[in-house]
């Protein structure tokens, strides 16, 4: 019972620390959660928490890397039309999508793709290029039978002024999620005339449907097979995984795909079985200040919070404020009911407690710039003290090579989240959450569960926070998560990177 009173005391102190940061919105539920965790502390944990609830998930197997008979008959692709240059914007995950789309477009236009360039962003502040993050030769070799890929333009074309020639393509020149027909109509004539087309700031400019089977399969092959992190990232990623699990050998296909041979398939002689293995849950909290400010929601911080977020919007989102002047405005309460508000660390903790994860659960937190800092995180760290980040799992010297490279740091989070026993997300629209959950679907073999709370349904549950009983709360939370884990084939227009269960990416046995 000592743990019980300790947890209750710490949660009760949250109100007293409100002056130091945002207030807690659900203190009563936090106390109920603390009591439940204390009661469960010495009970056997349900293994179902760490498993996918639907056995159908294991019937889907990866097969996007299998070369189709059509490609075999056609033989090695030829460069007939010209060369495609790509300058991708955004962070690691946006750039990953851009690369896969570029491979598909090069195939569509029968062109040669030059290894993509990554634009420097004032937001991400990362000068990393493709070869700093992904293995260039492996990428080229994996796709060589289907797309011509080279590292640089031929010398006779390097001096071409693509802008003067009309071959510089920006977002203004292509529709968002453009169709193949638009590429053939607008881009192919430029390619045939000038031999080079440069897509500047290229991102989400290729739709998912309608798209020919082979192009969809090629996108999957690129995302799930051709993009391998460089050994520097794999090595440090393996340190992260080994330290949180407390054992030093690979266990799953996900380990092998993301870490190569840097984690052995069998335990080392020095391995101490008494120290592991330990399961861990990876949590991607999208509660950075940009996400919080853009949402237009309120999170219990009162007038101080409102002023701070409005100031941030004025500096970083002036177009959003202008657009809001001309559209219907919703109150923060209405936005919350509509499911438009990011989940707070407090709400994430309540979901995990409602599902039954124990007080001692090991949690890897992806990213660490949480709005509100430690005061905002206190509810989560009180209920789940075994919470770690890459910053406290790795020494300063181990982190030093990544310090000024946000995309490479994001790659470490990608690895730790993708190889986790359970992956929990708070915003299904996040690129990291989308790509990691897709990777786990593709390689997880039906044994890599992802927890996806519905923000709208959770808001409805939490609206009863003053009266709802803990058993009722648990039942509603479990039902919400269970429905989000149903095994479904990719729907029309849905991302193939997030939803690979389809004939172009996976085979059903």
Radius of gyration: 24 Å
* Number of H- or I-type helical stretches: 25
Tell me how many strands there are.
13
What share of residues are in beta strands?
5-15%
> How many domains in all?
2
Mean pLDDT: 89
CATH class value of the largest domain: Alpha Beta
Helix and strand composition category: alpha/beta
Keywords: Carbohydrate metabolism, Fucose metabolism, Glycoprotein, Glycosyltransferase, Membrane, Transferase, Transmembrane, Transmembrane helix
Family: Belongs to the glycosyltransferase GT106 family.
Pfam families: O-FucT
Organism: Nicotiana sylvestris
Task: Outline the structure in words.
It is found in: Membrane. GO terms for molecular function: glycosyltransferase activity. This is O-fucosyltransferase family protein. Belongs to the glycosyltransferase GT106 family. InterPro entries: FucosylTrfase_pln, GDP-Fuc_O-FucTrfase, GT106_glycosyltransferase. The protein has 509 residues and is an alpha/beta fold. It folds into two domains: 27-53 and 278-287 and 342-508, Rossmann fold; 69-226, Rossmann fold (3-Layer(aba) Sandwich). Helix content is 46%, strand content 9%. It has 25 helices and 13 strands. It has helices at 2-12, 27-40, 69-74, 92-108, 130-133, 136-143, 155-158, 162-165, 180-186, 188-194, 213-226, 231-245, 253-259, 289-295, 302-316, 318-325, 332-337, 345-355, 373-383, 390-393, 396-399, 406-418, 431-443, 455-462, 470-484; strands at residues 60-62, 83-88, 112-114, 117-118, 149-150, 168-169, 196-202, 280-284, 362-366, 387-388, 422-425, 450-451, 506-508. Strands 2, 3, 4, 5, 6 and 7 form a six-stranded parallel sheet that branches. Helix 18 (345-355) runs parallel beside helix 19. The longest helix is centred in the N-terminal third of the chain and has 17 residues, at 92-108. The radius of gyration is 24 Å and the shape is globular. Residues 1-19 have low confidence and may be disordered.
């Amino acid at each position: 019972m000592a743990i019980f009173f300790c947890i209750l005391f710490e949660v009760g102190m949250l109100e007293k620390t409100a002056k130091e940061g945002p207030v807690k919105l659900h203190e009563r539920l936090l106390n109920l959660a603390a009591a439940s965790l204390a009661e469960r502390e010495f009970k056997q944990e349900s293994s179902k928490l760490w498993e996918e609830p639907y056995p159908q998930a294991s019937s889907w197997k990866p097969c996007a890397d299998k070369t189709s008979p059509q490609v075999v008959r056609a033989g090695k692709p030829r460069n007939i039309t010209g060369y495609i240059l790509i300058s991708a914007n955004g962070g690691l995950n946006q750039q990953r999508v851009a690369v896969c789309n570029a491979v598909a477009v090069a195939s569509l236009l029968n062109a040669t793709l030059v290894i993509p360039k990554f634009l420097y962003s004032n937001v991400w502040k990362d000068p990393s290029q493709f070869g700093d993050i992904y293995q260039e030769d492996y990428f080229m070799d994996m796709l060589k039978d289907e797309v011509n890929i080279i590292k640089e333009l031929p010398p006779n074309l390097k001096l071409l002024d693509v802008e003067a020639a009309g071959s510089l393509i920006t977002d203004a020149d292509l529709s968002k999620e453009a169709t193949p027909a638009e590429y053939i109509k607008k881009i192919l004539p430029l390619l045939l005339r000038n031999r080079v087309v440069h897509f500047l700031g290229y991102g989400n400019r290729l739709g998912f449907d309608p798209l020919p089977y082979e192009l969809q399969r090629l996108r999957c092959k690129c995302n799930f097979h051709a993009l391998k992190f460089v050994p520097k990232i794999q090595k440090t990623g393996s340190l992260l995984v080994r330290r949180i699990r407390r054992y030093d050998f690979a266990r799953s296909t996900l380990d092998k795909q993301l870490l190569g041979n840097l984690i052995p398939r069998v335990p080392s002689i020095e391995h101490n079985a008494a120290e592991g293995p330990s399961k861990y849950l990876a949590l991607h909290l999208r509660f950075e200040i940009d996400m919080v400010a853009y949402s237009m929601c309120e999170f219990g911080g009162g007038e101080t919070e409102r002023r701070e977020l409005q100031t941030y919007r004025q500096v970083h989102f002036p177009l959003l404020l202008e657009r809001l002047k001309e559209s219907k405005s919703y109150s923060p309460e209405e936005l919350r009911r509509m499911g438009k508000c990011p989940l707070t660390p407090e709400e994430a903790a309540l979901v995990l407690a409602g599902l039954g994860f124990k007080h001692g659960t090991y949690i890897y937190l992806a990213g660490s710039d949480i709005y509100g800092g430690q005061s905002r995180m206190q509810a989560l760290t009180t209920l789940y003290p075994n919470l770690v980040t890459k910053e406290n799992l790795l020494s300063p010297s181990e982190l030093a090579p990544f310090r000024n490279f946000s995309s490479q740091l994001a790659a470490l989070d990608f690895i730790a989240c993708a190889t986790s026993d359970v992956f929990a997300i708070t915003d299904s629209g996040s690129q990291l959450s989308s790509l990691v959950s897709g990777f786990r679907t593709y390689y997880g073999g039906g044994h890599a569960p992802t927890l996806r709370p519905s923000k709208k349904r959770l808001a409805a549950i939490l609206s009863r926070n003053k009266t709802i009983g803990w058993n009722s709360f648990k039942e509603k939370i479990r039902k919400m998560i269970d429905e989000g884990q149903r095994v479904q084939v990719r729907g029309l227009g849905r991302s193939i990177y997030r939803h690979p269960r389809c004939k172009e990416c996976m085979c059903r046995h």
